[in-house]
Amino acid sequence: MTMNGTVAVDRPRAQEILAHVEELQPWLRKHQAEAEQQRRIPQETVERLDRAGVFSLTTPTRFGGAGFTTRETHDIIRALASGCGATAWVVWAAAGGNLWSCAFPDEVIAPVYETPWVGNRTFALGGTSRRMSGTARQVEGGWMIKGTWPFATGSVHASHGYLAVFYDDTDDAKVGMALVPKDQLVERDDWEAMGLAGTGSQTVATDGELFVPDERFSTPERLSTRITELTRQGLGPARGGLVRSLIIGAGLALGMADQAMEAFLATIGRRSLPYSPYAHQIEAPVAHHTVGRAHTEIRAAGRVADAAVAELDRCQAEATDPTENEALQLHTDAAYVWDTCSRAVETLFRASGASAIIKRNPLQLITRNCLAGSMHAANHLDTWLENAGRMLCGTDSGPLSTSVLERRTS
Predict the structure, then answer these.
(1) pTM here?
(2) CA separation for the pair 68, 256 (Å, rounded)
């Protein structure tokens, strides 16, 4: 027992998990092609991650999850991505989705996390548009929901899903989130992608209408109120919300870039350079220039991420949230990291010669995974450069179209 009478929880330590992840990197690299072929993280990898404590990142702290700083979590995600980008993406996405566990009473959520399970417990989906969400109608005792939810990252290994549903045909602000056991959903096994194929981000759907009791239905307003109360009790999530998740996710881009650089340098000494005066690539000045440029881009992206991480950890220490403008800039920083790392990785890939297109060469997979991550709407640099520029110029064109986590109603 602690001094205030609550039960002490033996929580995982960040440095221990980071050390376990670094030990797992050779395994992750060896099996990342298998993940792509299976279009999901291999079960043995999931089991190894579970034993290493990695899924404590995807569990709320009040149920024994890791209450790590932004720095610690970012570093773990970067180390995971240096082993396998798709694996790191699943862990990162599941960690972000568990924020919705704050929106429901503990007696509803506790059974989700307190029964034995290997892997991430939950996944979260939808809310940015009706096309990517379901619908709901209220009935006695609950709601009847139906719909199709694409890009269900983490659903393959989860027991429950948080599904966004619109419950008013005329008002896009009327959106809720339903907590649904995954075994009540149809899994379409349709995730065929050129990058991040190993994430298993399939479509899930209802088979007709599905009843969800009132206690398993919540709204962004309830989420906000509940987070405020949990924070007052010292049990709330770290400050920063969505933007914190995105800055942590920038570690994915950096980790894949780390692996790409390592893979490139491992073979440069024995790679020939046909149609040139150099017998080996390592003798060519252009190769040195290529490595120097890519290294500098990755290092610069890392410095931007480091500054953003420090800013969020400062907010947490001072018990404040980023302002709207600060959050916008942090979001832009995350997109910059993704864009810069993706370009650096592609530079290394292009400098690797035609043999780099062979499937057994890890650079082609890393390149496709990093490019796919940079194309995610949340990471699309052009969008966020425009948003940042509009802020700097004082031009107000209305609220941004963001996720259900950031929706505001009057």
Answers:
(1) 0.93
(2) 22
